[in-house]
Each structure stands twice: as structure tokens, then as C-alpha cells.
Design goal:
The N and C termini lie close together (11 Å). The chain has 3 domains: 13-66 and 165-354, Zn peptidases (Aminopeptidase), CATH 3.40.630; 69-162, Domain of unknown function DUF2172 (Glucose Oxidase, domain 1), CATH 3.50.30.90; 359-435, Winged helix-like DNA-binding domain superfamily/Winged helix DNA-binding domain (Arc Repressor Mutant, subunit A, Orthogonal Bundle), CATH 1.10.10.10. The strands form 5 sheets. It has an 8-stranded mixed beta sheet with strand order 1-10-12-11-13-16-14-15, with helices on both faces. The chain is elongated. Helix content is 31%, strand content 22%. The longest helix has 20 residues, at 337-356. It is built from 13 helices and 19 strands. By secondary structure, it is α/β, with parallel strands linked by helices. The protein has helices spanning 13-25, 35-44, 108-112, 142-146, 193-211, 228-236, 238-241, 270-280, 299-302, 337-356, 386-399, 406-413, 417-429, and strands at 50-56, 60-61, 64-65, 69-78, 84-87, 102-107, 115-116, 138-139, 152-162, 165-173, 180-186, 218-224, 244-250, 260-262, 288-290, 311-315, 359-362, 401-405, 433-435. Bound molecules: zinc ion. The site of zinc ion has 4 residues, from loops.
Length: 440
């Protein structure tokens, strides 16, 4: 089975719909818990069989504990004249995420101890959190801070930090096999486009695409708060973990940079080989496949040694490597429909290979079988040029000794996976290949 790579009849339509979803979710104040996260999950789950889980505050999860739930209605700083310096209503980045409630008057020097800016990017507002420390703070442009004079300031944060729950969304699309593909994205950042609304949009549209298709593999999508979400899911689902054969953590997929794939901890998992094949044959240059490091997004948890799952990370420009990262500049203009759509297509290419990768055994391994007599030489069915088709038949026959899967044949031959797959299907029809058990 080859999944269609064009995600929509009219190019650009899907990208525009993805961007529209991002624009809708952008103003919501998400965090690792709370109503903003819930609202986001409800939107993402539209049209999908999404189960929304609520895990109570205080639940032990691996070495962690589900935190208190945070909600916020507003917050501001007023200057000595009563004028608002920053207001949560203008941007939810202005209040440090997870700030405890506060209402007090204080001097500029005292205020500065609770203000975060970016002196090197003076016009931008940074994104800051205080998840595991009960404190409060504001974020603003450095140039705003520099304009503040002495006097008495008023700070107000109308938030709650109390017993509640950690919320996450889970979509399972069953396939013919119980073997699973895990697609995970973090959903905990407030008004930030590339990190992390782009990953959420790509995951949600990938789920929508796969929902209506025949599937060999089972697909499990996790829409979770970063770190604590994957830790919570792993703690509650240890019996499922063994079914995960492949996985991708999606993040930062809406900018115009080249793709970056971060390998799983194993380094030689099938998903690692799939992504290498997909990304190194792209026409656009600069795509990179990088080794695992124990820092990043939720692949850190999936690839912790006790799980060691075959899960890698897919981004365009990775976190921390674009100047807009974790600032107010990572907005709706920074993520573009065409980049989102290209990212979705890349995920669909990977899925197509995961669905179609099999191993065969050559039934006539002594000498080359006579292809012309079987009418195999001219009938490429549109897959590749005539000489490429010929070479794909020869490579597939030669390497189908039971130890090479189609993906490794594609890699060794330098021929695209779809052409090798078509060659294997033709050879199987003529009885020259037989599938290897357990490698449907
Ligand atoms: Zn982030």
C-alpha cells in the first residue's frame, strides 16, 4: 500500500487550514495544567476520537508528582501614574506562566526582581515559566523596562494554583496490527507559534489524514504538556509501551528552515532509517539527521534507559536555534502555511514507508531469474525511469535474502522507497519473492 503524498487536491489548502487552526489556538493561555490546555485539546480533538484524560494533582508518576493546577484570568503592572505598563490581556506572555496570585505595591527596584527581559532583543517579550517553584513574575520588552521611572508600582496577578488535574489528549487509530506508531507533541506553551502550536497542528492534521485510511499499524497520538505529560503517560501505560515500534516527537515545524531529525537513543531503529531516507532525498538542501542527546522535548522521557523506545524527534529549525524561540516574535507571522503543509507531507512520507516496509526472500536465488521472459522489464507501472526500474528489480532480487528490508534495499541502491516497493510487489506477483514471516 502506498499512501498518497499529496495531502489535498488543491495545493496550499491544507497549509492554510493548519495555519487557521494555529491562529484560533494562539490566544489561549496554555500551561502544563489548567483550562487553557483543556480548551486547546477540545479544539485539536474535533473530528478525532480523542480521549481526554484528567490525572489528579498529587498522583505519583515515576519519580515525579502531578503538580497543582494553574489557572489565570488576568494580570498587570501599573506605574506610579496608574497607567498599565504591561497587561496579560495584550499578551499572555507578560505573566510568568504558573505565577502564584499577587496584589501589592512595590518600588521599581523590588519590581525589577520579578521582571524578565531580553537585553539582546530589546523589543521582544520573553516566555518564562515557574512550574516547580511557587513564585510570580512578569515578562516585558527590555526597552519598556528601561523606560520605567522611580516610584510606587502596583502588581496584580489574578491566578489560582490549587488541587486539580493534569490534562492530556490521546487519539488511538487502530490498525490491522497491534504494533504501534507513537506521535507525540507538547501542548503546554501559551502564545507561541512554532514552539509549540506548529507541532500540535501537524499532529492533529496527520491524525485526521490517517483516520480515514486503511492502516496496517496502529497510531497513537499524544497531545501532552511537555515533560510531566510524557512522564505521566509512561507511568500509566507501561503495559502499552512494549507495542510501540516507531515514534516521532513533533515540534517546531512551521518555520522555513530545513528539516532536522534527531535519532532515537538506539540510533539504528527503523524510524531512524526511515527519517534518514525521507530527509536525505529531499530536493531542498540542508536537512540534517542528528544523533540523540538527552536534552530536548519528550523524546527524553520515551528514550530514558528504562523505556529506550524507538522514538526520534522531527523539527524544521530545532528549539533554541532560531532567534524567535521562546519570545513574542514566535508569532502567527513566523509560522507559514506552506511550511506547515510541507512538514505534514514529510510525516506522511514517513508513515507511507513505515506502512510499506517489508522483507522478502528471493525464491530463485541461484543466478538471476530471467526477467524478460516474465514481462517484468518494461512494466514499471510508472514507478521510476526504465533503467531505474531495471536496477530496482535487480537490487530487490539480490538483497532479498531475508535479512534486508525494502528500506535498506532503497538505501543501498540509492533508489526511492516507492520504486523499490513497486519492484518488490511486481516480483512477488511473479512468484520471485516470498514475504518473510513477521515482516508483513
Ligand atoms: Zn518550548
Amino acid at each position: 500500500m502506498t499512501l498518497a503524498l499529496n495531502v489535498d487536491a488543491e495545493p496550499g489548502t491544507v497549509g492554510r487550514r493548519m495555519h487557521a487552526l494555529i491562529a484560533e489556538l494562539y490566544p489561549i493561555c496554555r500551561s502544563i495544567t489548567g483550562d487553557g490546555l483543556r480548551r486547546t485539546l477540545r479544539e485539536l480533538g474535533k473530528g478525532l476520537p480523542m480521549e481526554i484524560h484528567e490525572v489528579p494533582t498529587g498522583t505519583p508518576v515515576l519519580d515525579w508528582t502531578v503538580p497543582k493546577e494553574w489557572n489565570i484570568r488576568g494580570g498587570y503592572i501599573r506605574d506610579p501614574e496608574g497607567k498599565k505598563v504591561v497587561d496579560f490581556q495584550d499578551s499572555n506572555l507578560h505573566v510568568v506562566n504558573y505565577s502564584v496570585p499577587v496584589r501589592r505595591h512595590l518600588s521599581l527596584a523590588e519590581l525589577k526582581e520579578h521582571v524578565f527581559t531580553l537585553p539582546d532583543q530589546p523589543a521582544l517579550v520573553p516566555y518564562r515559566t515557574s512550574y516547580y517553584e511557587e513564585t510570580w513574575g512578569f515578562c516585558m520588552a527590555h526597552e519598556t523596562l528601561e523606560g520605567l521611572g522611580d516610584g510606587e508600582y502596583e502588581v496584580f496577578i489574578d491566578s489560582t494554583l490549587s488541587e486539580g488535574a493534569l490534562t492530556y489528549g490521546e487519539v488511538v487509530l487502530p490498525g490491522e496490527s497491534a504494533e504501534e506508531v507513537l506521535i507525540s507533541c507538547h501542548c503546554c506553551h501559551p502564545s507561541l507559534g512554532n514552539d509549540n502550536l506548529s507541532g500540535m497542528a501537524v499532529a492533529a492534521f496527520l491524525a485526521r489524514k490517517l483516520h480515514s485510511r486503511r492502516r496496517r499499524l496502529t497510531y497513537r497520538f499524544l497531545f501532552i504538556p511537555g515533560t510531566i505529560g510524557s512522564i505521566t503517560w509512561l507511568a500509566r501505560n507501561e503495559e502499552i509501551v512494549g507495542r510501540i515500534r516507531h515514534g516521532l516527537v513533533l515540534s517546531c515545524l512551521g518555520d522555513g528552515g530545513p528539516f532536522h531529525y534527531k535519532k532515537s537513543r538506539r540510533g539504528d531503529a527503523e524510524i531512524d532509517r526511515v527519517m534518514e531516507h525521507v530527509l536525505t532525498r529531499e530536493e531542498e538542501r540542508g536537512n540534517a539527521v542528528e544523533d540523540f542527546v538527552p536534552y530536548g522535548y519528550d523524546e527524553r522521557q520515551y528514550c530514558s534507559p528504562g523505556f529506550n523506545l524507538p522514538v526520534g524527534g522531527l523539527s524544521r529549525t530545532p528549539h533554541g536555534r532560531f532567534p524567535e524561540y521562546h519570545t513574542s516574535a514566535d508569532g502567527l507571522d513566523f509560522v507559514r502555511p506552506e511550511h506547515l503543509e510541507r512538514s505534514l507531507e514529510t510525516c506522511l512520507q514517513a508513515v507511507s514507508i513505515l506502512e510499506g516496509n517489508r522483507a522478502f526472500r528471493n525464491t530463485q536465488p541461484k543466478g538471476e531469474p530471467q526477467l524478460g521472459r516474465r514481462g517484468l522489464m518494461g512494466s514499471s507501472g510508472g514507478a521510476g525511469t526504465k533503467s531505474e526500474w531495471h536496477m530496482s528489480l535487480l537490487w530487490t532480487l539480490n538483497l532479498s535474502d531475508g535479512t534486508h528490508d525494502l528500506l535498506s534495499i532503497a538505501g543501498r541502491s540509492g533508489i526511492g522507497f516507492e520504486v523499490i516497493q513497486a519492484a518488490a510487489e511486481a516480483l512477488e506477483r511473479h512468484g520471485l519473492l516470498t514475504p518473510v514471516e513477521g515482516r508483513w
